[in-house]
Design brief:
By secondary structure, the protein is an alpha/beta fold. Helices cover 41% and strands 18% of the residues. Helix 9 (312-317) links the parallel strand 7 and strand 8 (322-325). Helix 1 crosses helix 3 and helix 2 (19-45) packs across helix 3 (55-91).
């Protein structure tokens, strides 16, 4: 990325003829490189200075390096092709035609200068505009509601309500007021159960105390349970697990728990996050689900909590009626509901899926590790379970 930063700056210096524009471009790219190095060093040495960085600055750095440079690449490609064509022309003896100097002393902006300035400034202007959009998104989420018909639902649990909260990502991009709004929105649902499916924090254990406080502030008639996600384990998996359990938050790590809900047992089966070889994920997950099934209480209604939605394949094979997942962020960047990063990366990426008597609900997640969502809005999910007559 730093090489591309330098390449954009060199291209901009060739395209921009006015000194002021060159100074602004230099300041812009210097800030971007400084911001990128700050993020890299902050994560490498696990220091907390990113929490002091304004969201606007951090968002601009992320968007520039993931989107702004993508705007620059085709412009740079055209420039390289033009340079190659001119070089070839000189080799075969052709003389380039230089534009005539403007009348009146040469101070007017020529057409070539205007096009060059537009090409050079398009990526940073695009970045600034998209940063404004992103900052508005970081404080917004919706409540999405589903009513599920479940033939295996015991009569006592007909009408059971669940608040499914996933991917809060407490950290640099999800903090302050929006966290309080998440708690308020969850509590306003007055759900029977609050179930959290991983990625409580974005990466830093320094945010875990706040994350635990957020979980404890979520209210449910019969309690709350949670599992871990991949972001929770970035710094120190064992320490995350130890601190959450020590705080009294029910964290299920390939474990089960049973609660009496309306006088009927409900069993929560929680999968831990599999670290390492993604190619073996389905195989390992299937083994873990089989182990959890040995803990099944025959008279209890089971709910599987799995951060990665591909666990649904093993859940359906085990005839589990309901699985809740997150992780995908709804695909993050989607052209529409069926095309985008979601289906390109996951078999299940957003909403409700069914196979036989088993159903899966995948949450888009309510928090953010990446500042841009397109057709994948942040959300808390409210589920109502109904017994099929």
């Amino acid at each position: 990325m730093i090489v591309l930063d330098a390449a954009w700056w060199m291209a901009a210096m060739r395209l921009l003829k006015r000194r002021l524009w060159r100074v602004l471009a230099t300041l812009f790219i210097a800030g971007q490189i400084a911001g990128l190095l700050s993020i890299i060093c902050g994560r490498w040495w696990q220091v907390d200075w990113l929490r002091q960085t304004p969201k606007a600055v951090l968002t601009a750095v992320i968007i520039w390096h993931f989107f702004g440079l993508a705007v620059f690449l085709p412009i740079g490609f055209v420039r390289v092709c033009a340079w190659a064509a001119r070089s070839l022309g000189r080799l075969i003896g052709a003389r380039p035609v230089r534009p005539a100097a403007p009348a009146g002393g040469g101070h007017a902006l020529t057409r070539r200068e205007f096009i060059g300035a537009g090409a050079a400034l398009a990526p940073p202007l695009f970045t600034i505009g998209l940063t404004g959009v992103a900052l508005a998104q970081l404080s917004r989420f919706r409540v999405r509601r589903f009513t599920l018909s479940i033939p295996a639902l015991p009569p006592a649990l007909d009408g059971l309500t669940l608040a499914h909260v996933s991917d809060i990502h407490v950290g640099t991009l999800t903090s302050g007021r929006v966290l309080r709004e998440m708690v308020n929105a969850t509590n306003a649902l007055r759900a029977d159960l609050v179930l959290l499916t991983g990625d409580l924090i974005n990466d830093a254990l320094s945010d875990l105390s706040e994350g635990i406080s957020i979980v404890k502030a979520m209210e449910a008639r019969y309690g709350r349970w949670m599992i871990e996600g991949n972001h929770d384990l970035f710094e120190n998996a064992a320490e995350f697990e130890r601190r959450v359990k020590a705080a009294g938050v029910p964290l299920l790590l390939n474990e089960s728990a049973v609660a009496s809900v309306r006088g009927h047992p409900v069993q929560f089966l929680g999968l831990r996050w599999m670290r390492g070889d993604n190619q073996r994920r389905d195989q390992v997950t299937a083994g873990w689900v089989r182990e959890l099934m040995r803990q099944r209480q025959s008279d209890a209604f089971p709910i599987l909590l799995a951060h990665h939605p591909h666990a649904f394949d093993a859940a359906a094979a085990a005839d589990l009626p309901l699985t809740l997942s997150g992780h995908t962020h709804g695909g993050q960047v989607m052209l529409d509901s069926e095309h985008g990063f979601g289906p390109a990366m996951f078999r299940y990426w957003s909403g409700l899926y069914a196979r036989g008597r088993s159903q899966l609900v995948v949450s888009n997640g309510v928090g953010n590790w990446f500042p841009i969502r397109i057709n994948a809005p942040a959300e808390i999910i409210h589920l109502t379970l109904r017994r099929e007559n």
